[in-house]
Amino acid sequence: MLSWEAARRFLFDGIAVNACHPGVTSSTLNQSVSGVKGGLTWHSPKQTAALPLYLATDSSVTNVTGKFFSGGKNP
Fold first, then answer.
1. Bridge-partner residues for 21, per DSSP?
2. Do 41 and 24 touch, CB atoms closer than 8 A?
3. Measured at the alpha carbon of residue 67, what is the angle toward residues 53 and 4, in degrees to the nearest 5?
4. I want to staple 21 with a disulfide (CB 3.0 to 4.6 A). Which of 30, 33, 43, 70 is the partner?
């Protein structure tokens, strides 16, 4: 909701605001936290970084704002 409101407020200032959930990273920290069990799709750090990196650098999403991206898939 914060991202949607920021996207609305900055719409005419040329600032794009989006939110993303790139997935769950297979890391030592995540694997050591109790309660994190199966049923999750674990991604490598490289896979998890792909979506935020794409959103921050790809010119095809320059004018996309107020969206939520998830699952490590490009829009």
1. 70
2. yes
3. 115
4. 70
* 21: helix, strand or coil: strand
Asked if residues 75 and 64 have their Cβ atoms less than 8 Å apart, the reply is yes
Length of the chain: 75
Tell me: the pLDDT tens digits for 15-57? 999 999 887 777 777 666 655 566 667 778 888 889 999 999 9
Tokens representing residue 61 in the block: 């999403």
| E strand intervals along the chain | 19-21, 24-25, 42-43, 68-70
What whole-number distance in Å separates Cα of residue 49 and Cα of residue 13? 27
What mean pLDDT do residues 54-74 have?
A: 84
